[in-house]
């Protein structure tokens, strides 16, 4: 496997190479770069099988590198130290990332997933969705990749009315359809809580912009844009009211 490394710190690149050598001795480092222009030129020339890409670079970001490449025919594993916004965007698009400092076990797991990525016909669409989501011009148009039994659906956040827990699964109720996803509600609560969503009940995560009315009660209940009524749990009532009072 030919691997290209992009990281603006020389020590980090050397550490990545050492870790790769220990877990994937047959791999070949076909190039490395520390800046956006250097990375774009090197990747185009090397045509790697895998790109390990740091998100935060001195001259820009790893996303800038991808945006300048004409064709991305290889999997990408993002590496990031602390950027919450970057991690959120990456999770929305269902692509792989690792946190610094790099853990050999995590990298080994990511490399196993790379082999699956190489068979993923929709991988290019995941990267396209990621680049759209991090583009400031796309504010309000973000999409989230929802894994279903037969692939991925890229759902606009603005079209999600609410999400319902179904055991280890989650059902997304959209304006015109519902989508069953093979991940639990807690995972989506963590991803969407900064995007105008609030978990009003153990079973429900609600898009706050889709609330038409709140009716008082022990916990009270909501009437949503599609006419659905959803209970607000008593223990979440106070924090829910605090959130909507700031809207």
SSE arrangement:
Elements: E1 2-6, H1 10-23, E2 28-33, H2 36-46, E3 50-54, E4 56-57, E5 60-61, H3 62-68, E6 76-80, H4 84-92, E7 96-99, H5 104-117, H6 123-134, E8 143-148, E9 151-156, E10 160-166, E11 169-174, E12 178-181, H7 185-192, E13 197-201, E14 204-207, E15 211-215, E16 221-224, E17 229-231, H8 234-245
Parallel strand pairs: 1-2, 1-3, 3-6, 6-7
Antiparallel strand pairs: 4-5, 8-9, 10-11, 10-14, 11-12, 13-14, 15-16, 16-17
Q: What is the third-level CATH name, the topology of the largest domain?
A: Rossmann fold
The helix/strand class is alpha/beta
Total number of β-strand segments?
Answer: 17
State the share of residues found in helices, binned by percent.
25-40%
Distance between the termini: 50 Å
Strand content: 25-35%
Textual characterization of the structure:
- With about 250 residues, this protein is of the alpha/beta class.
- The chain folds into 2 domains: about 1-135, Response regulator (Rossmann fold, 3-Layer(aba) Sandwich); about 155-245, OB fold (Dihydrolipoamide Acetyltransferase, E2P) (Beta Barrel).
- It is about 35% helix and about 30% strand.
- It contains 8 helices and 17 strands.
- It has helices at about 10-25, 35-45, 60-70, 85-90, 105-115, 125-135, 185-190, 235-245; strands at about 1-5, 30-35, 50-55, 55, 60, 75-80, 95-100, 145-150, 150-155, 160-165, 170-175, 180, 195-200, 205, 210-215, 220-225, 230.
- The strands form 5 sheets. The protein has a 5-stranded parallel beta sheet with strand order 2-1-3-6-7, with helices on both faces. It has a 5-stranded antiparallel beta sheet with strand order 12-11-10-14-13.
- β1 (about 1-5), α1 (about 10-25) and β2 (about 30-35) form a beta-alpha-beta unit.
- α2 crosses α3 (about 60-70).
- It is elongated.
- The termini are far apart.
- The model has no long low-confidence stretch (mean pLDDT about 90).
């Amino acid at each position: 496997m030919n691997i290209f490394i992009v990281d603006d710190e020389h020590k980090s690149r050397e550490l990545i190479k050492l870790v790769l050598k220990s877990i994937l001795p047959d791999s070949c480092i076909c190039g490395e770069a520390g800046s956006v222009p250097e990375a774009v030129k090197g990747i185009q020339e090397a045509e790697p099988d895998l790109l390990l890409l740091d998100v935060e670079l001195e001259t820009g970001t790893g996303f800038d590198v991808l945006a300048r490449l004409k064709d991305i025919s290889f999997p990408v594993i993002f590496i990031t130290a602390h950027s919450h916004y970057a991690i959120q965007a990456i999770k929305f698009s269902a692509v792989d990332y690792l946190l610094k400092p790099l853990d050999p076990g995590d990298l080994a797991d990511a490399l196993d997933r790379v082999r699956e990525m190489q068979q993923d016909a929709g991988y290019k669409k995941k990267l396209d969705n990621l680049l759209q989501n991090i583009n400031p011009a796309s504010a309000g148009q973000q999409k989230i990749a929802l894994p279903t039994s037969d692939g991925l659906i890229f759902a606009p956040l603005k079209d999600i009315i609410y999400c319902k827990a179904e055991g280890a699964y989650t059902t997304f109720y959209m304006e015109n359809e519902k989508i069953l996803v093979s991940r639990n509600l807690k995972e989506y609560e963590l991803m969407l809580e900064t995007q105008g969503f609030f978990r009003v009940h153990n079973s429900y995560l609600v898009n706050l912009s889709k609330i038409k009315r709140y009716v008082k009660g022990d916990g009270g209940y909501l009437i949503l844009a599609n006419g659905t009524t959803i209970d607000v749990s008593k223990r979440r009532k106070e924090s829910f009211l605090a959130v909507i009072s700031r809207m």
